[in-house]
Write a structure and sequence with these properties.
Distance between the termini: 109 Å
Strand order of the largest sheet: 14-9-8-17
Subcellular location: Cell membrane
Subunit structure: Heterotetramer composed of ParC and ParE.
Family: Belongs to the type II topoisomerase GyrA/ParC subunit family. ParC type 1 subfamily.
Strand content: 15-25%
GO molecular function: DNA topoisomerase type II (double strand cut, ATP-hydrolyzing) activity
CATH class of one domain: Mainly Beta
Organism: Kiloniella laminariae
Helix content: 25-40%
Length: 750
Amino acid sequence: MSSSADSVPSGEIRDIRLVDALSDRYLSYALSTIMSRSLPDVRDGLKPVHRRLLFAMRQLKLDPGSGYKKSARVVGDVIGKFHPHGDQSIYDALVRLAQEFSLRYPLIDGQGNFGNIDGDNAAAMRYTEARLTDVAGELLRGIDEDTVEMRPTYDGEAEEPCVLPSAFPNLLANGSQGIAVGMATSIPPHNVGEICDALLYMIKVPNVGFEKLVDFIPGPDFPTGGILVEGRDSILQTYSTGRGSFRVRARWETEDLKGGLYQIVITEIPFQVQKSKLIEKIAELINNKKLFLLNDVRDESAEDIRVVLEPKSRNVDPAVLMESLFKQTELEARASLNMNVLDADQTPRVMNLKEVLQAFLDHRHEMLVRSSRFRLGKIANRLEVLEGYLIAYLNLDEVIRIIREEDKAKQALIARFKLTDVQAEAILNMRLRALRKLEEIAIRDEHAALTAEKLDLEDILAREERRWEIVSDQIKDLRKAYGQKTELGRRRTDISDMPDDVVVPLEAVIEREPLTILCSEKGWIRAMKGHQEDTGEAKYKEGDSGRFFIHAQTTDRLLIFASNGRFYTLGADKLPGGRGFGEPLRLMLELPNDEDIVDILVYRPDQMLLLASSDGRGFQISENDVIAQTRTGKQILNLGEGAQAMICYQIGEKDDMVAVIGENRKLLVFKLEELPEMARGRGVIFQKYRDGGLSDIKTFRSGTEKGEGLTWTDTSGRTWTRTEIIDWLGRRASAGRLPPTGFPRNNKFG
């Protein structure tokens, strides 16, 4: 008995690098996904699973005029004969082919629950039934006439078509969606009548330009309708490259109610948008107060879509309300176009509109040639038999004698009348009743008709011009059956110009509510509803007191200037509520412990600020430039050694002078234009100091009129105004002079 070590291995073992094994196997997987699963064929617009579904249903004789069969029977046949994959994936493909809101021209006629536009799933396959539609019949027409190549099925027991004859331009008409490995396809549905017009023109003018093609096919035609609002230039670019997108909006109208009120009714929504999720999104925006102009949304849909929007008041502009919804919901969506398909050589590539149309025409031309040759073969066989019959009728007595007397009648007939084997076999298989004179006349008529048909087919095969005339006639018949004059072919998606720019006020999307913001000395911040004029009753932690008191709106942004020279940005709606003591602003901003809050301002676009540090340096800057995009803030004022940012002052609209006072109690006034406007940096010197640094700074408007002049508030609360400032007027970076009588001893303007 031999040991296990001496046993022969069951298979060949080879040493290969792991990277080579992985790349080979992944390449095989990728090619399988691209060729056999995800990308449609440009000729029939079908993926393998869809093609196998239609072919299996044809074999089950589920023609449009026949009865229905259970979907489970169809799925079982597809799995068993053609497509050995999961039953649920095959049933999902079948369901989609039957959904009128998924396919512009459904290929399967479903009976039962096949899902709905709300996103609800179809019933189980044992409850639903299916049969083919007339459109599917167009795809399969002529498949028995050797029009397409057949290949063995996965188990080799039968054959399946590599592509369908496709007398219907299914790729553009119904579109396709798919994701493969490293590539994807996305083709929206189009109108068959328009496609037929473009095809007929291309037959007449093969070198047609894209401008003319877009005249025939101005854009997609979605089964769910809607309004296409993409510009023509963009559409032209998309079709000429095979890549791009289309902007689609919901269709809406207003309905007048009593008392001058109205409501908006949405009757069509963009393609592949689930109505239930759309309504949930609108309701969520209302609850989150991000659609201030909208009061309520209701779904009153039955068979047709009817989504009712109730505005807040009769004064709301419907166009503004809808524009805000278009910006925030899928009432406006983009349908992408990426015509990545398998061409006639089964090579995946992105085609433009003209190439796709030409591929369909070439396919139809090839189908005509193949079907003509197939028919010629059938006619030749039949004519051979008929000619044998005619010889038999001319020599009927001799034929009967040979059949009665000869042991090998077949060979005798062939030798006597120079018949072919097929003709001799046909004569021997004739019934006696076929020997009547009337049968001879019928055979002669049939022979003449087939001979004429043979000559016609030979003429078709000989002349390309004739073949394209026949293809044109086939396309005209298709346009007549499914064109825009028919109910099924009527265009559902309207083509519109680019929408006008509607200015959507902030109130339309976010509710503005007044706030009073309180921040304590120790940096605890909170926001109270409404604009409070007296905060004497506001409570603070023991040992703490109020510092900042600001009126704002929930839509405002706050600019927070810290002693490190950084600006932080915080939304007013992000602040804690007025109940309690609030939250530490330092923690919200992640501010270092050794830094303090200098000032808190409500952001005003284009407002100018004056920034200053304790060492008497600074500059002007626009509030637009201090907005911080990150939580860590934005460094604006660079500081010298030992200095801290200490002033953030909003410059008045007409202010033209700057007043600076130092810790040495010297006051200097100079023109604002001497102070540069910078985006960041240390700035310039305001005032020279021998000892100490900056104490306070402000801007004012010079003059003697009311509201002009330098003002300050003393310790008793009185306001002083000085219009004569000549004694303190100087150049920036001068030393200054002692302030006028009555100026506070704390060296602050108040």
